[in-house]
Amino acid sequence: MSQQRRGGPLGRGFRLCLLLAVLLAGFGWGSRAVAAGDPFAELAATNSDLVAQGVRALAVSGSPRAAPVIAALKSGKLLAWRWPIPNAPLFIRTDAGLVDARTGAPVATPPMPVNLRPVIVSDAVRGAIETASGVLDLMAPDPTIRRHAAEALLQAADPGSLPLIDGALAREKNASVAHVLRDARAAALLKSATAPIPERLAAIQRLAARGDLSARGLLASLHGEPPAVAAAVAAAIKGIDRQLQMWDLVEDVYYGISLGAVLLLAATGLAITFGVMGVINMAHGEMVMIGAYTTFVVQQLIAAFAPALTEFGLLFAIPAAFVVAGALGIVIERCMIRFLYGRPLETLLATWGLSLILQQAVRSLFGPTNQDVSSPDWMSGFVRLGGLTLTVNRLWIILFAGLVLASLMAALRWGGLGRSIRAVTQNRRMAAAMGIRTPWIDALTFGLGSGIAGMAGVALSQIDNVSPNLGQNYIIDSFIVVVVGGVGNLWGTLFGALILGVVDKFVEPLSGAVLGKIIVLVFLILFIQRRPRGLFPLKGRAVEA
Amino acid sequence: MSSDGFTFGRRQLGLLGAGLAATAAGLPAVPDLIPAAKAAPAPGTGPIKVGILHSLSGTMAISEAPLKDVMLMLIAEQNKKGGVMGRPIEPVVVDPASNWPLFAEKARQLLSVDKVAAVFGCWTSVSRKSVLPVFEQLNGILYYPVQYEGQECSRNVFYTGAAPNQQAIPAVDYFMQQLGIKRWILAGTDYVYPRTTNKILEAYLKSKGVPAADIMINYTPFGYSDWQANVAKFKAFGSAGKKTGVISTINGDANVPFYKELGNQGIKATQIPVVAFSVGEQELAGLNTAPLVGQLAAWNYFESVDTPANKEIVAAFKAFTKNDKRVFNDPMEAHYIGFNMWVKAVEKAGTTDHSAVIDAMIGVAHPNLTGDYATMMPNHHLTKPVLLGEVQANGQFNVVWETPGLVVAQPWSPYLPESKNLIGDWLPPMSCGNYDVKAGKCLGKTKA
What we know:
- The complex is a heterodimer of chains A (about 550) and B (about 450).
- With about 550 residues, chain A is mainly α.
- Chain A is built from 22 helices and six strands.
- In chain A, the strands form two sheets. Chain A has a four-stranded antiparallel beta sheet. A two-stranded antiparallel sheet of chain A has the order 5-6.
- In chain A, a hairpin with a 2-residue loop joins strand 2 and strand 3.
- Chain B is of the alpha/beta class.
- Chain B has two domains: about 1-165 and about 305-385, Response regulator (Rossmann fold); about 165-305 and about 385-410, Rossmann fold (3-Layer(aba) Sandwich), CATH 3.40.50.
- Chain B is about 35% helix and about 20% strand.
- Chain B has helices at about 1-10, 20-25, 35-40, 60-80, 100-115, 125-140, 170-175, 190-205, 230-235, 255-265, 280-285, 310-320, 330-350, 355-360, and strands at about 50-55, 90-95, 120, 140-145, 155-160, 185-190, 215-220, 245-250, 275, 295-300, 365, 375, 385, 385-390, 395-400, 405-410, 420-425, 430-435, 440.
- The longest helix of chain B has 20 residues, at about 60-80.
- Chain B starts with a helix and ends in a 6-residue tail after the last strand.
């Protein structure tokens, strides 16, 4: 970028203005006869700066061919004649053969391949392509696309794009897009060495008010400025840093909560099977894994039979994963666990063996490689909240974890099955005497815990790799959460997960991810020695039973 | 297949028999020759055994199992051409199951029980380190096909993958010169390869005048998935007004959540570019490549390189495995070169005797699949081109840059104080893997 600036921003700015004027006047594309104004001609140049200029000019030319030509250039499919010839023909390579870049018509008599070369894509050109796609997007009808384009312009902070931004601002009706455009204008002004100083100072103020990392990066990249500007920049950076420091704390807490939500999801099912029933279920992680694979299968089925619903595949996967993992849980309880009640060591060994069997079964069925579970658009990207960048998928997971826990608590408190479960765990013989089929309730309880683990798998498929080993990564953490929180207490599970998450994220920046994990585990050992029953131990007769 | 079996049959009619039946069934003829070969064990006749020491189960199977397939294909093709010195080659496949001590056991078995002429194997540096004493004690030959951290140069190993200066250093140069990167994030998984590579890169960057404040080193565990805090940290590091780049030695499946998080936090390749040393076609197969598109990887080979030899072998591999979706990658090319060099060296030496072949290997050249020639240098490493590729949506790479010529390997990094005076040269009179040019003497066996 800096090279172009040296090349004379005024000259290029003027040309951009001219092209923009042509565009606005509605002439559209048609300047081909004017060789100097033919942006396509510059694309055939062998100098990458000229090519970059060509890309910019093409983007604002308003030509309907601009988008396909720039896309072709980006993927290396735009070909030029190997040596300079008049009219500088350009071709796009497609599967069907060569296409004339200027008209989009197929070439009847294609030249020999040896005569052609791909148009150079250097870093300068790449930057220009990025801006160009932004420019094309600025004219899109969708305000979100325009907003993203404006953000890209802000990042690029290219003084050459000032006329462009002004043009877009004049047209822009959407307030939030216009806001970003004004920020982008400030960024471009900031970088322009020729703009009047008061204007630049105002730009610095505007960016300082924006106060995020990209603004800081832009400000910090200025060197050798006049003293007035340099002082303003230094003050602005200082102000931003102070703000960011405050946000850092909030950010760490948020990351902790978001890790806590993941832990909570993974552990909630275990809080039922281990916490309520007392089954040391080493195959719990595999239930999570099976939930993730169910998500994969559901996505495949939807893609095959109802492509229109692809965006909402996850919503269908949630009940599916609950049913699949839950049913499997019931089968496991009926065929294996019920023979092992009261024998924790055997249960541990048997469920561990079961976890290996399930892993290998999935490996044999789906192959050892990771499966590709796609994220819908509504779960991608990020939102800004003050100085925070919150990724959307994590926000959904926090929400989902909360919902799962709340509905589980509600079901246990008010639901018919929940009442029976509580009755059986509190006093099995009395419950049996009241006519509750306790073995059946055992099976359903185990199924409920497994089903919840399956739902956790749906969420984890969005942030982790869907592989046969997925469950192994979470089983230890799940047990820790349940034990720290206090066995048999769902509130304890919630607090255990959040505390572990937040502690982990506060320790991590100090010591790195590897050492951080070790430190957390050491804390845990000390904690469990002091509070062997966890944060919220159950009190009363149920404990003794 | 059957016609090739026939040409082979004409050479050694007496040995065939069950073999022809097997070729008719579409199987490689050679393994079925074992009983016949055992019947005629006269030295200098019978098949030549070659060991294949790659994990076929466990965590590394995803990466290593395809290397076994490629070796079986190369051996089958060589046998079609009449084997080596007129004798067929017989593959001996063992499964060290991603278990490092088991690698050493299996290597011992290959060398002392099966008496193989050469072993093609290992992937992780840990597995190589674990078999190294076995190969040195029994004077075996190991062809090691993976890019690695250097700081080793054994007489019994031919390193057909890249040394750090054939992958990491050129990629850093590209970042520095072409992209104008001023601030560096060295992100890696926490084990020996990333740690050593990052140590070398840090020393290299400092030698280029990069201040320590502009280098950030970040390690994460294997299979890490909670990247949001780390990526936010990278972003903050990148907002100091200097162009920032990430040099990634992140290994295995931790990469996918990493790139996904980059995408989610809105960091594009044009803002903070990432170049990876452990992400190749095999790793990308079966992944959602959308979050990775536009990011870079440095290798010595890409499947997408448009040369006739490459097209031919990729097609042959797909046909051999009867699977159109199989991909070809850098370590596979290394085995392709290594195996062909071994064949040439055996024919040059006229024997499969280990010491004779080791001496004959030096100076042997074979074309790379991407053009130009790979030559086995006296330091037991190859000359290689270095390519930088951009990930595309189809899981292939688009080459955006390559070194102007071939790069000669420096197994001992000149940027680390402990190895800056060392060279490896296995030609007489030096015949030493760690010759100290300053002290003028061979350090000999150290606990490397």
